[in-house]
Structure formats: C-alpha cells, structure tokens
C-alpha cells in the first residue's frame, strides 16, 4: 500500500484512532487473514458469517502488524487500532482512497473483468501481457468480491501503471458495488452463462448483474461478440465498444483453433486486418476467447502486438487447477480443471478432451458436482452425462452423490457396459481409477470447487 498516516487512514475509513500516534505512517500489506500478515502490515478484523476476525488480532500482533482496523478494540492488544463500524466497508473505503490518490499522481489504468466463465484466466493473461510494459497489480487466485477486490487495490504503489481486477457476481447489486468506486477505464464482459443461475434465479438475472459494470466503464467496453446477451450490451455515451469472438463481425476475430497436448493454436485476426497465429501452451478452445479478450484490452492500452503475443505464448498455465496439464513419468496425462465448473465450462473441457481423443488417446472424464445450479441442477447434470456419451469419451467416473445424475444420464444415453462408474467419495474414486491408467491416457478431472476433485486430480497426477 502507499504510505499513509494513521490520521489519513482514519479519515478515509471514517474511523476513530483508539491507540497509536496519528502521525505514524504505515505502508504494508492489507489483509483480513492474519496468516498473511507480516511486519508493518495492516490487519482488518472482519466479522464473518461463521467467525470473528477479532479472535485473530493477537496472531496479527505476533506477526508484526503495524495497525489493526477493528469494530471492537482490544485494550490488551499492543498495536495501533482504528475503530470503525464495519471493517469490510472500511476496507473498501481505504481502497477507494488509495485508488484515488494513485490515479491522481500517475497514469494508472484500471481494467475490470466480469463474466460467468473465464475471469481468472483472462485476468492472468492480461496481467502477463501488461507486466511486460509496466508495473501491474492483479488479484491472486480469484480475489473478486467485496473483500478480495479491495485487498488487491490496496496493493497499489505510486508507480503502478496497470490494475487488473476481477469482479465476481454475488447477486443483484454486487457488481455495482465493486464497479461504482473502481470506475475502470476498460471493462471486459466475457459471458453470461448458467454459472450461479440457480443461486441468482435465472440467466436473465445473471445478465442484469453482469450489465451493472457497463455504466461505470469510462473509456472502452470490450464485449463478447458470440454471446447473444453480452453482444447487446451498450456502453455509456462516449465510451468505445470493441468486440472479440468467433463471430465474423468481431473486431478481434478468432479463426481456426487447433488443439493438441502441446497446447492451443489460434488464428487471430485484428481490427487492422493483420492476421497472426497465436500459440498457447494452455489447453482449451475456450482459452481462445480469453486470449482474444486479453489481446483486445492490451491493444486499447497501446501495448505493441508483438509483446502481447509473446507474453501469451510464454504462459505455462492459465491458473492452478484451470485446465492444468500434468504429464506423469509413466506417460499418463492429467488435465486438472476442478476449481470451478458450470455447464458451459464443463462442455468446453469435455470438447477439448474429445478433440484430444481423436488424436489417438484413450480419454477418461472424472466429473463431480456443478454447484449453485438450483432447480436447473438435475436436468443439467443429466444432460452432461449424455454429452459425455455423444463426445465418445472412452471412460467416465462420476464422484459424489450430488453428481450422480451425470452417471445416470450417461447410462441412459449410451448402451454402456462398465464405461461409467459412480463413486461416492474422492478416496473411493482414487482407488478405482488409479490402477487402470496406462501410458497415453488423457484424464480430465473437473467439478466445482466444493466437490474437492482438484485434490483427486493432484493425486492422479502424482502431485500428492
């Protein structure tokens, strides 16, 4: 964080200095997790649904925190403290003040990314590009909510040139809350899909939430031309609109995509007519969309195309547990994509697996629950099982009671005899699968985070 005195921080968060010298200056990392706190950092004691961050104030003190933002001060804590009514709101308010100050003194450009799928991969791709031309701050993992996003903003330094932000949806008004104070110069709308549709109520509501970013974009809106909902989004007057996708009318048009275990080759056509082949080491046709969005944003920021293309080509991984390809010493390939799952991302991952299967590999899909689908869940899990059969995947393993309809759907779609196997637990599945893999097999492991299959993927890959 930039240097601020306790007095300046108290003003920014509308708080009261309980202990500490108002003139003392802090500039450390800000976090709500005491385990991430180090010497000189700022600890926010967040009141959570199941826990109270004030319990960890002694730990933050032990780790050397310089300041704690609290709603309930502790007289026995040997640390400067600022009392506020709501520590999460204080986190946002301090981030907004830091963002305002850095914008005022430099040439900071903020890029906000939202969408049902692809946020994290696109964020990492864009950060990989921008970090080659200027100091760049981007979220770690999927820090994209009312806590994670301000924590990312608070990592700004006076000479930061680019701030890349993920904006996750958590209901009506959630994107509005994030975008209204970040005011990104560039906004990227990736997709309105079925992810979280059950939690939100419908795809229409998801679209409404994603659209909340649009009025807060100040320079360029980058939109998915292939998405029938996103493509109709309109930016505010004076804000440019740039599109990407497979659509022939897209400004950043994706041509043929070729998949193999070596990566993804993408024919890219740019608005000036230039056509180039982008070679990603990252797997997945859907990564072409993420790459096109990142290239579009980079061009709006004036990054030379050669630098952008090289940066993307050099990436080894979009993100841990996102289409992460691991080759075991015995020649088995494991694709661990079990951090998130929606019907759209499941379909994309299976499509990639099927394409690789047509290149002479036996294909194995290890699938778990897609969370937050609500009343759509049964039908969509059933459809997924049927899709596995239609894609000619050689072997299906379904893990967890919540995902059992994938197994049932596959059994009803195909005349299978043992090609689909159901396991109730991850450990049971590992015992069933591990001894049956041979050299050349390609194993896709995919589920929502809550199913825990990412750890099964690690085990199958020999990483645990």
TrEMBL record:
Catalytic activity reported: D-alanyl-D-alanine + UDP-N-acetyl-alpha-D-muramoyl-L-alanyl-gamma-D-glutamyl-meso-2,6-diaminopimelate + ATP = UDP-N-acetyl-alpha-D-muramoyl-L-alanyl-gamma-D-glutamyl-meso-2,6-diaminopimeloyl-D-alanyl-D-alanine + ADP + phosphate + H(+)
Pathway: Cell wall biogenesis; peptidoglycan biosynthesis
Record: residues binding ATP: 115-121
Gene3D superfamilies registered for this protein in UniProt: Mur ligase, C-terminal domain, Mur-like, catalytic domain, MurE/MurF, N-terminal domain
A Pfam family that the UniProt record links to this protein: Mur_ligase
EC number, as in UniProt: 6.3.2.10
Domain called Mur ligase central: residue spans: 113-298
Localization of this protein: Cytoplasm
HAMAP family: MurF
Entry protein name: UDP-N-acetylmuramoyl-tripeptide--D-alanyl-D-alanine ligase
Provenance organism: Aquiluna borgnonia
Gene that specifies this protein: murF
């Amino acid at each position: 964080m930039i240097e601020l005195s306790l007095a300046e921080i108290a003003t920014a968060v509308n708080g009261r200095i309980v202990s500490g010298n108002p003139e003392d200056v802090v500039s450390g990392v800000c976090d709500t997790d005491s385990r991430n706190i180090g010497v000189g950092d700022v600890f926010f004691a967040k009141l959570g649904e199941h826990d109270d961050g004030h319990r960890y104030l002694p730990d933050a003190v032990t780790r050397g925190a310089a300041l704690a933002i609290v709603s309930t001060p502790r007289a026995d804590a040997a640390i400067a403290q600022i009392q506020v009514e709501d520590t999460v709101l204080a986190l946002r308010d301090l981030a907004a003040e830091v963002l305002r100050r850095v914008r005022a003194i430099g040439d900071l450009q903020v890029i906000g990314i939202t969408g049902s799928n692809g946020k994290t991969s696109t964020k990492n791709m864009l950060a990989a590009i921008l970090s080659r031309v200027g100091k760049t701050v981007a979220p770690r993992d999927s820090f994209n909510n009312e806590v994670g996003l301000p924590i990312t903003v608070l990592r700004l330094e006076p000479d930061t040139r680019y701030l890349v932000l993920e904006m996750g949806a958590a209901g009506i008004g959630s994107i509005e809350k994030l975008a209204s104070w970040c005011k990104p110069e560039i906004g990227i709308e990736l997709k309105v899909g079925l992810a979280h549709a059950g939690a939100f109520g419908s795809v229409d509501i998801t679209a409404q939430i994603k659209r909340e970013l649009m009025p807060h974009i100040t320079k360029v809106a980058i939109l998915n031309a292939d998405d029938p909902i996103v493509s109709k989004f309109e930016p505010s007057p004076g804000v440019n609109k740039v599109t990407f996708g497979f659509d022939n009318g897209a400004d950043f048009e994706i041509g043929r995509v070729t998949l193999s275990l070596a990566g993804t080759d993408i024919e890219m056509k740019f608005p000036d007519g230039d056509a180039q082949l982008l070679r990603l080491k990252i797997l997945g046709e859907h990564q072409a969309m993420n790459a096109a969005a990142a290239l579009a944003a980079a061009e709006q920021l004036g990054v030379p195309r050669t630098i952008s293309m090289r940066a993307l080509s050099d990436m080894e991984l979009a993100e841990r547990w996102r289409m992460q390809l691991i080759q075991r010493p015995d020649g088995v390939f494991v694709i661990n994509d079990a951090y998130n799952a929606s019907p759209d991302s499941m379909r994309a991952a299976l499509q990639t697996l099927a394409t690789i299967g047509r290149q002479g590999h036996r294909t194995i899909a290890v699938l778990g629950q897609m969370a937050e689908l609500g009343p759509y869940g049964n039908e969509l899990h059933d459809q997924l099982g049927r899709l596995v059969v239609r894609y000619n995947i050689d072997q299906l393993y379904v893990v967890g009671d919540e995902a059992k309809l994938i197994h049932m759907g596959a059994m009803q779609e195909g005349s299978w005899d043992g090609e689909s196997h159901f396991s109730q637990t991850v450990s049971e599945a590992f015992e069933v699968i591990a001894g049956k893999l041979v050299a050349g097999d390609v194993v896709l492991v995919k589920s929502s985070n809550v199913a825990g299959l990412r750890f099964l993927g690690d085990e199958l890959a020999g990483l645990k």
